[in-house]
């Protein structure tokens, strides 16, 4: 009898081990992002090209040193408010996909579809391309100073940076996360290297550039939203952790801790970096520089000046890596929900990476790099990005009211959610007046997607011949890329 029991127990144990092994070996996106990688993911994506490019845009549109520092601080506070809202959304809805998923769950399929398509028609290519252009500029510029670097060479190096990041993300999720952690430590070292000499000079009495900090004739209320756009661009990335919810270990704990620690750290560092810039450079010198950190280094860190461009380039590469890692998950989830071709919801059978989604972005980014200019790209992409972020937090408030019993492991204070939503809508609305061309084109492209939804998703008018054509080539592409749909539900 005892032997029989032992035999049954052994068989049960073997069966459980087989099931666990089968599930572990099944093709799906696995939970591999712990607290440290999550913090590195947020900081590494936020701290990219922005702090080395945006100071010029913030100062240019704010009109004075004092107002620009206030803008930097308020952008940090606003980003923290938004990140806390997304912490609630990330713990309330367990799917990956970020903005797309939250709009789908709270406001319905049309806003989610619009967000998904605008993300990959122009927002993501524009964001990735201006980060890549910053990478290219900081790599090339030191070899040509004091002359201007050739634009063609900057763009070629930018494309090389994008190619490297795409290759890493296609190869391995673990390699992409380890790369992100390494690049995050490098970029924090770069910020500290700027902060220390700047604050030291300020303590030693170098305050000339802060005298009459608010005295400026160029201040314009209508340009202020563009200053916020440049500042918020530098803080952009606090929402990327929400794109990979299904790959985060214990998200109910990881999300709030990672978000609060990351955004407080970034805000303090950004304000101190700008103080350091203004301590060493005048406002006019900062406006004349296309590579602010390099100009700063030649003044304050003459012996270490050659190192700064390398560190900044690594910082841009980290932001590019984090952005691509997160954005491809939105495309992956959108395809899984039927809002994109099914090929984009497939995973490589050995690498366990969303290979088709990653490869889809590559040519779009390359085209945007070839055509784009950094500051136009910032304003062009920012309108739709912030409009849909405001819609997502508005959807969160509506969902709270309609479904009060829905589990919310983390709940942001109502005043923070309302303040963030109203400020986002205000900035978006005023920007249509401040930069009607770029924001108007962005708005028009967003609205133009509405007929696509009604023709392809709501009521399919796609001819059967076209469907057969797409199905055939989708199958051929699936075989060529060695991809299949995930075998385990991860949400």
Automatic annotation (TrEMBL):
Query: Quick one: a GO cellular component term?
Result: membrane
Keywords recorded for this protein, A-Z: Membrane, Transmembrane, Transmembrane helix
- Please note every region of biased composition (Basic and acidic residues): 14-23
| Topological type in the membrane | Multi-pass membrane protein
User: Which parts pass through the membrane?
Assistant: 33-53, 65-87, 121-140, 152-173, 185-204, 224-243, 255-280, 307-332, 353-371, 377-398, 410-433, 439-457
Single GO molecular function: L-amino acid transmembrane transporter activity
Where are the residues of the annotated region Disordered?
A: 1-23
The subcellular location is: Membrane
Checking Pfam families in the record gives: AA_permease_2
Per the record, the coiled-coil ranges are none
Q: Does the keyword Calcium apply?
A: no
Q: Which InterPro entries match?
A: AA/rel_permease1, AminoAcid_Transporter
Where mainly located?
A: membrane
Give the superkingdom in one word: Eukaryota
Cross-referenced PANTHER family, in alphabetical order? AMINO ACID TRANSPORTER (PTHR11785), CYSTINE_GLUTAMATE TRANSPORTER (PTHR11785:SF246)
Q: What is this protein called?
A: Cystine/glutamate transporter
Q: Which organism is it from?
A: Triplophysa tibetana
